[in-house]
DUF8094 domain-containing protein (Orlajensenia flava), 607 residues
Amino acid sequence: MRFVLAIVAFFVAAVMIAFGIAQRTVLLAPDSVSMATTVSGGDAYVVIGSKTLALHPGLQKVQVSGGAKTSMIALGREADVAAWIEGEPYSSIGVDKKSGDLASTRVASTSEATGESPASDDATAAPAVVEPTNPLGSDLWLDEFTGTTSASAELSVPSGYSLLVASDGKNPAPTRVSITWPLDNSTPWAGPLIVGGLLVLLLGFASYLWAIWHMRRKRRPRRNMPKGPRMPRIPRPKTIKEITPSTGRRAIGKSSRVVAVPIVLVGALALSGCSSDFWPSFDGASSPTASTTPTPAVTTDAQADPDLKPPAVTVPQLERIIRKIAVLTGEADKALDSTKLATRFAGPALALREANYKVRTTLPDYAAPDAIPAGPVELAVPQQTDAWPRVVMTVLQNKDDPTTKPTALVLEQESPRANYFVRYAVSLAADAVIPGMAPARIGSPVVAPDSEFTLLPPNKVAPAYADIMMKGDASEWFKYFDTATDPFLKQVGVDSKNNRRANLPATASIDFSNAVGSGRTLALATNDSGAIVTVNINETETVKPTDGGTVSPQNAAKAYSGVENSAKGITQTFGDQVLFYVPPAGSKDTIRMLGFAQGIISASEVP
């Protein structure tokens, strides 16, 4: 019976181990599925929608090649990708209902669909604005992947996002597109079968050894047995040698090899069973290959609530934009290159830096504008919108460099193919406290310039503050502002102007004036229904001789205007960029100045 048990155990162990090994070898399912198609339309863009990418669960590995000298894959919201294409023809990658394979469908341009000529028949019509067509490096994308003759990307694209495949926006896009999805080919019972088979095998060996031991014990002579007649002793032939077990080195080596085979097999099988693919999971965690976590993370609350508009940018997207701006600004500041600067700056921020470059060309020791740190992003406040223009406010502070001031930037993107431009760049005040803002994954709505839901409408903040700069506590708006802790007002307020007037010689006079600048007032809502408002104010100083003599401009005014002496007088204008917190209407709080930047923007002789 013991031998029967050993034989059954050997058989069961062999079946279990063989079936466990077969699950990881001959019976192993493929670890991925691939689909490919060829694009033949010759269009500049190819779009792969989220439905196509979600044909199978898990990460998608997208590869494009063929035809193009440069290849790129850009990840963006489906609406943003459509806005970039903007009515141009493109090829859409979908699934053929008959074959089940990927297929390319050409989508005609707007002019092709309507049959209208893109050219205007009106010879006097203004020429169309030509926007950049190369999608590489656009701020619109959450991520992009590039290559020379081919490009590949491995990511998990959630619903509502798509991929744009292109070369340079002018030449045809890559013609070969393939998508690979990983499959869960784990065999959770292979490990238990192999290990269980080994245990049963050991049990069989134990049963076999027990059976042999029991059989030998039964064959031993028993004690107190009756003695029978002795058999005659038969002499052993001398020619026959006694056969004894080998005890030499050869015998030991032979037996070791016999034992080593199962030991090596058992060790190899045990080690192979250590993989997580060999064992069942009881914690409910999904396989790594079937992970549906977006890469990079692009999930926003707008996906959960269709009525909630998405934020203009994600934090990783904003960080990438800021790094580009910081590098370009550093190069432009060093080379005094206004042309390069104009590719990323506009409005008041551009005017201040351009004037600074002009002054430093003649006056090298003149202070440069505050550097823009490359990060980290301490605060990101994107506008909650799916249209253009789009506004983003961010606060940057490089804590590793104590010489770099905390900087607030207000960026604006005019159209899908335009990059974000810096319209305001201000240094925060030492005691500035930014009010609570919506999380970056949600975004903040823009407050209308004439909104009555704030203590002052955003479009009235600049003229009110300008009036206080000229009149002080005599201004009707004085009570709305926290003037006691405002460091900028101490530099440009009434007391400062009176001191400047008093320090002029008797042979000259000075007049002050100011006005709201041409920079657009931008306001983003705070959590308490207030607003963060950025404004532009231009201050003008005019110095004239009073005794028929001349006046001599100094420092920046002299360097900018190029005038040594003037009998008419000198006019110089300073551009102010000011960041405010405006409380909600009915609040007992006052408007607080959070940060500012000021610099000369023009100087000339009085006409």
